[in-house]
Specification:
Helix content is 58%, strand content 16%. By secondary structure, the chain is an alpha+beta fold. It has one domain. A hairpin with a 5-residue loop joins strand 2 and strand 3. This is Na+/H+ antiporter subunit E. It is found in: Cell membrane. Its main location: membrane.
């Protein structure tokens, strides 16, 4: 039963990534096609609940693979990720979005 639960969590994480990939690609494409660039790039720190190096690496990779965001660094203790966003209106909102999507899905996979 645990194997099925974990397999389902992996599928959900993959589907979430594909959804985020297409949505963010669409947003980046719209920004590129606009005659006037109206972005607010920024760097923010995001605390993570993930503990293992594997979990943190996976989150960092998923952030980097999603257009418009890039993981710049991870603190030595692994608790904070420094992320660059192409268009950042609110750092708290962006952190909340990452935590409620990728981070939660990763925890479902690794802690099932």
């Amino acid at each position: 039963m645990i194997i099925l639960k974990r397999a389902w969590a992996v599928i959900k994480l993959f589907v979430l990534f594909v959804k985020e990939l297409f949505l963010s690609s669409y947003v980046v494409l719209l920004q590129i096609l606009k005659p006037k660039l109206s972005i607010r790039p920024g760097i923010f720190a995001m605390k993570t609940e993930l503990k293992s190096d594997w979990e943190i690496t996976l989150l960092s990779c998923l952030i980097c693979l999603t257009p418009g965001t890039l993981t710049l660094d991870v603190s030595r203790d692994g608790e904070t990720l420094y992320i660059h966003a192409m268009d950042m209106e609110d750092a708290e909102q962006l952190s909340h979005q990452i935590k409620n999507s990728f981070e939660r899905a990763i925890m479902e996979v690794t802690r099932a």
